[in-house]
C-alpha cells in the first residue's frame, strides 16, 4: 500500500509560535504553484488564530529555498507578455502576504537561499541564518528577471545593483550579516533553538503593540513607494520573460532534455568562464 504523500507545508505550534516548514526537500524547497498556495493558506490560518503571536518559516532537508521551480517553468513553455504579467503579479502578491501579515514572520535560513528564495526571505520581517547559508540572485545568468523587487529596499540601490547585475549567488552568511541582508548568524546546529528563542522573545510582548509596530515600520517603505516599485518590477519582468531570450530558451531546452541539474551546470559554467 502506497504511503500518503506528506503536505508541502508542515505546521507546528510551539506555545505562541507557529512554525511553517516548506516540505519539498528533493527540490530544495523550490517554489512551485502547490507550495506557494499552501504557504498562502497557512499564513491566512495563522492570521486568524489569536493563540499565535509569531511565525517562523523554514525549509526541510538540505536547503531553505533554491528559488522558483525552474522545472515547472520549463514544462510551461513560452508565454506571451499578458500571461507572464498575470503569473508574475500573482507571485508578487503571494510574496507580499508575508510582508502584509499582521504578525511578525522570521525566516530561518540554512544552506541555499537563492533567487525567489531570497525574495521570500526578504518578504519576512527578520532572518536568522546558519553559518553555512548562501544568498543571491542568479536569475540574470539565464535571461530571467527578479519577480519581487525587494532587495533595494533592504540593502540600498548600490549594493542591490551590484548583486543583481553580476548574478552573484554565493554571498556567504557572514557577508550577508555585514551588509544587512540578515539579522543574525549562528552555527547550523544551533539554528532551530536560536530562531525559536528570538520568536519567543518577541511573543512575550503585547501582541497588539508588536503588530501595530510592524505596520508602522512597513508604512515607511510604503510611503517611500515600495509597492509601486514592486509593481513596476513585475511589469518589467513580464517583458523580460516574454522576450524568450536565447539564454532562456537554451536553459529550458536543456532542462527538458537533460534535466534541471544539467541546465544549472550549463548556466554556471558559462558564468564562471568554464565554457566558451
Description:
By secondary structure, this protein is of the alpha/beta class. It contains 12 helices and 9 strands. It has helices spanning 33-47, 70-76, 81-100, 116-123, 151-155, 157-166, 173-178, 191-203, 207-223, 226-242, 246-258, 260-271, and strands spanning 9-14, 17-22, 54-59, 105-109, 112-114, 126-130, 134-136, 171-172, 184-186. The strands form 2 sheets. It has a 6-stranded mixed β-sheet with strand order 1-2-3-4-6-9, with helices on both faces. The protein has a 3-stranded mixed β-sheet with strand order 5-7-8. Helix 1 (33-47) packs parallel to helix 3, helix 3 runs antiparallel to helix 10 (226-242) and helix 11 packs antiparallel against helix 12 (260-271). The termini are far apart. The mean pLDDT is 93.
In terms of topology, how is this protein built?
Layout: E1 9-14, E2 17-22, H1 33-47, E3 54-59, H2 70-76, H3 81-100, E4 105-109, E5 112-114, H4 116-123, E6 126-130, E7 134-136, H5 151-155, H6 157-166, E8 171-172, H7 173-178, E9 184-186, H8 191-203, H9 207-223, H10 226-242, H11 246-258, H12 260-271
Parallel strand pairs: 2-3, 3-4, 4-6, 5-7, 6-9
Antiparallel strand pairs: 1-2, 7-8
Helix pairs in contact: 1-3, 2-11, 3-10, 11-12
Amino acid at each position: 500500500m502506497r504511503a500518503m504523500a506528506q503536505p508541502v507545508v508542515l505546521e507546528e505550534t510551539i506555545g505562541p509560535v507557529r512554525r511553517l516548514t516548506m516540505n519539498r526537500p528533493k527540490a530544495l524547497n523550490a517554489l512551485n504553484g502547490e507550495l506557494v498556495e499552501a504557504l498562502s493558506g497557512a499564513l491566512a490560518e495563522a492570521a486568524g488564530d489569536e493563540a499565535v503571536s509569531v511565525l517562523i518559516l523554514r525549509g526541510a532537508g538540505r536547503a531553505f529555498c533554491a528559488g522558483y521551480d525552474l522545472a515547472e517553468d520549463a514544462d510551461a513553455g513560452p508565454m506571451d507578455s499578458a500571461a507572464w504579467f498575470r503569473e508574475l503579479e500573482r507571485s508578487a502578491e503571494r510574496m507580499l502576504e508575508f510582508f502584509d501579515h499582521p504578525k511578525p514572520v522570521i525566516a530561518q535560513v540554512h544552506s541555499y537561499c537563492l533567487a525567489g528564495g531570497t525574495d521570500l526571505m526578504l518578504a519576512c520581517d527578520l532572518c536568522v541564518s546558519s553559518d553555512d547559508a548562501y544568498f543571491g540572485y542568479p536569475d540574470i545568468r539565464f535571461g530571467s528577471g527578479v519577480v519581487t523587487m525587494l532587495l533595494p529596499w533592504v540593502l540600498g540601490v548600490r549594493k542591490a545593483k551590484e548583486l543583481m547585475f553580476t548574478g552573484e549567488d554565493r554571498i556567504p552568511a557572514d557577508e550577508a550579516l555585514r551588509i544587512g541582508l540578515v539579522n543574525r548568524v549562528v552555527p547550523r546546529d544551533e539554528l532551530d533553538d536560536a530562531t525559536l528563542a528570538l520568536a519567543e522573545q518577541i511573543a512575550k510582548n503585547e501582541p497588539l503593540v508588536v503588530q501595530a509596530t510592524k505596520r508602522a515600520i512597513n508604512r515607511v517603505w510604503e510611503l517611500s513607494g515600495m509597492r509601486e516599485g514592486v509593481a513596476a518590477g513585475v511589469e518589467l519582468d513580464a517583458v523580460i520573460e516574454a522576450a524568450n531570450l536565447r539564454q532562456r530558451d537554451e536553459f529550458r531546452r536543456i532542462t527538458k532534455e537533460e534535466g534541471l541539474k544539467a541546465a544549472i551546470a550549463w548556466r554556471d559554467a558559462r558564468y564562471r568562464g568554464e565554457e566558451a
